[in-house]
Fold each of these.
Amino acid sequence: MKILKKTGSILFCLLPVLLAFGIQIVVTFAGVFVKIMLLLAEEPLLFDGPGLSGLEHAIGQISSDSQFLTMVTASYALLAAIAMGIWYKARFVPKHMPRRKPSALINPCMFGGLLLLMVGMQYISSYMVALIAAIRPGWFETYQSIMESVGFDHITPLLALYTVLIAPISEELIFRGVTLKYASKAMPFFLANIFQAFLFGVFHGNMVQGIYAFVAGLFCGYVCHKGKSLYLSILFHMMFNLWGAFAPEFLSYEGDAAWIHFGIAAAAAGAAFAGCRLYQKGIKGRP
């Protein structure tokens, strides 16, 4: 009976992710349908060709429209954030909970720790992607095509808004909010953190993003758990995405000197470790 109850508790932890997937599917299909109707209004003879040629043409136009894809993704993320925010507040936020002052939530020491951790993780993620590209070039090509289709080769204001603001809030509510909270009740935090990070990786839909999202998810879970606030993992996620989207090229070394790459990797690992220590020190200093 205990095994069945435990299994049920673990399976229940999948519900937030399944709900997010459901919202994503509904929004995507609705967006594609509206887009096809708009294309048909502009080109009434679009579907007069033989077979499914008109539909294939429309799908081709849609799949190459990065602005439309970004809009659909942002719309899904907003709806998911609203749904998960309501769920999180109803289930995990005590009623009449007094608002904490910013100084009781984060201090300069903690912020410095998050900054160091973020920079270290960015370089570690870059080397992970480079390693995957060398071992599995097919995975890397898929990843590149996805990034280009969404528009990361030329970031628009909408894509920037989604990347830096909407996605971190939505994804943290789904994974470090509702999922991790339920998982922590069903298993020790160590396993719960791995569980939610794994789901976070799977959620990204391709192997390259999935692998580094898994690692980033582990640290987001750590930040949230240690700091006892979802706001902190949202902040860390925003910082991580901001650097990933807008860091200048001169901060990346693309030469062939192996010793420089090893030095950067070692420094990144050191920065991540120092960031964790500084973050924990700052937590102890909160009022």
Amino acid sequence: MKLLKKIVQILLRRNPSNLADLCVVGLGNPGDKYSKTRHNLGYDFVELIAQRFNTQFSESKKLDASIAEFNFGEKSILLVKPNAFINLSGKTLNLIKRYKVNSLDKVLVVHDDMDLQPSEVKLKVGGSDGGHNGLKDIIKTVGKEFVRLRFGIGHPAIKADTNAWVIKKPSPEEKKLIADSFDKAIFALDDILNLEWLLAMNKLHSK
């Protein structure tokens, strides 16, 4: 029976109907304490996508995350908010790689980025972690061949304040600028959901 169960699990894993065409993973820290903080922009943006497509999040033990699903044309889209803290994001990405996609280029990780200013948003394929602890854990766990959607939060005035900076809520002025960056990303959303990365980049990176 154990062998049969293992065979069924392998077949389900390989069944294309069980896979997503795109997994959009929003990084953030769980819990009310961290809600709407700078480090949780990934959570916020995937929640915005869910609202746009009228889908609800539910818990997935298999992925150790909250997930929401919808179809965009012929594509199956999976939205993911890992349950682990942001510096342990690699765990859920490993489960996504194992169960939900057949390659990492079908994973879009949405995250905050101190190297960009509020209102800036960039799309990037592959690359280093840029000092982001969530990306660092993901790259260490599954590799770097995933796509990143980066929302700017800027740097604190004093470098030593970095850890406190990311887990604080942005100022009212910053909130407006971040909302602008979300609007820019929504403008490119159709291309993003179609995995048309170059088209999305042209929209996001043009002045």
Amino acid sequence: MRKYRASQEVGELNLLPIMNLISLLIPFLLLSAQFIQIGIILIQTPRLKSQSSADKKQKKKALNLTVIMTGKGYYVKSRFGSECPPGKAGGEEKLCFRNKEKGKFTADTIRALQLHLWYLYKRKYGSSQYYEDEKMDHHSITLVPQHDVKYEAVVKTLDALREIPAGAKDPPSPTNMPASGCRMTFDKKAHTWMVQGAKGEDVTERACMYHLVTLAIGAS
């Protein structure tokens, strides 16, 4: 004879102990969290919409300083043409700073680029006459990394573009550079990002080279 088991009712799942445990763990997680300062890099991306005639005219007045990164090294150019150091252009390609090994941007190569850009920024094109407009911001530059360049190399190059090289000799680097370097803070009154020193002092000229970077990824 078959025996039928009585059906047992399944009670509701009690989540209260788990919720109590999570509530106890949240304060410990907050206490163990490490708070860090986040640096801001002003990076613009080229817009796809067509430019007006006024924008195109304004662009012609800019220096249009551009650094192109490939696996072979760095190209530097402006609206005047190639901006390689004397005797550094590698043949017809105008490669200014060549990597010893393809794809590897060493600290020496990045440092050489930084010193040359400091020379262009302060000595060669320090005067506003090269911009054909006194209102043009000479802190702007375009960085064009090709598809064969690693992300890490792009970040290191961005840092090199922003910071004034310490120990530079041609021309000498400022002796009163702030310890924080080229750090951006948001000015609520001006409603814009600015380079700030102690007590709200604007230290742009003493801390930064090209902090207005246009990152053109994949451009040729």
Amino acid sequence: MKEKESKKEKVDSQTRIFDIFRELIPYIVIIIVVILIRSFIVTPVRVKGDSMYPYLKDGEVLILNKLDKSYKRFDIVVASVYDGSQIIKRVIGLPGETVAYKDCKLYINGEEVEDFVDECITNDFSLQDLYNYEIIPEGYYFVMGDNRLVSLDSRRPEIGLISESKIEGSIAIRLYPFNRFGRLK
């Protein structure tokens, strides 16, 4: 009799453990899916500093799209730099292009392009002056912050041209503050 009760308790205990595990499976799956999405598809990033002011402000939370690797001029991207930190900047020059700024005007391949920044706050430079390159090498991008006076970007040798492998993705959505929530242009 005691033996039957002991076997029954053992079976009941195993059944309870199985039931608990079965109830946890959906939560475990959800956690795994969230981790995979955050690691490989989208993740939040926080703006630090004023280099993209006034378009992006310090403390804003953005959604980084890790899947889109087709960067176009004026896209906002997040890139890893020399010290392992992240920068949020705007793509100005694409691979195979020349970039110059003269008299407050942006020139790509020698032709004036309407810049995203309206104010005349960018000192004159050229890709040739900065890095002795005729064109941006394949697989690299020239990036700048919107607040050109304080931005640590491709004009500075410690940042330089950004390798495509260092670009983590592009930004398309502002998540926070909620009163500025929405797609970025």
